[in-house]
Amino acid sequence: MVDTIQQIALWALPVLVAIIFHEVSHGWVAYQLGDPTAARMGRLTLNPIAHIDPIGTILLPALLIISNAPFLFGYAKPVPVNFQNLRNPKRDMVWVALAGPVMNLLLALSCILVLKIGLPLIAAGTIYSSSSALVNFFAPVALMAKNGVLINVVLAVFNALPLPPLDGGRVAVGLLPEPYSSMLARAEPYGFLILIILLMTHALDKIIGPPIDFLINFYFKFL
Asked: What angle do CA 134, 140, 146 make, to 5 degrees?
């Protein structure tokens, strides 16, 4: 029980940071490109209360941790974006959609930087017992940073799938010429059903597994 609580504590903050920054980045880019919807609704804030979805932000990640799932996933309440308010809706939709996965990749890099700084300090504190307070502080921070790399990479790759309503799907809709753009956009109501089928048949693992492994190995080479 204690180990489970510790695991949830070490995963909770990285999950919150990853999904909240992901959503806020969508709203911020949309605001820069002409859509004030998220700003008017108070969603351009890092306050978790404004973004928490009881199922996607709390229940789903907790169940995955408790069940020792091979991956961790979660989501926040989507930041509202009115694409018609954008100065160039079709083009700017691409930038708004890209903002989320790019933010997650930047957060993964920042976690690597935390590890780059923290691991030598932990090693030094282990050698010199007088620095045990340093170890007690940086050890959980390093574990959260390591978890942060994994979480942000998974979120970035998953959301990059070219399937509406995921970010990659919106990017594809914005980049594809007609009639292919409209054809893909019409698949949005069925997007999550397709994802569930891919997940249940383990096809999703085969699709996102290789790029996730590549990115994780890439990031950890910086250590």
From this structure: 120
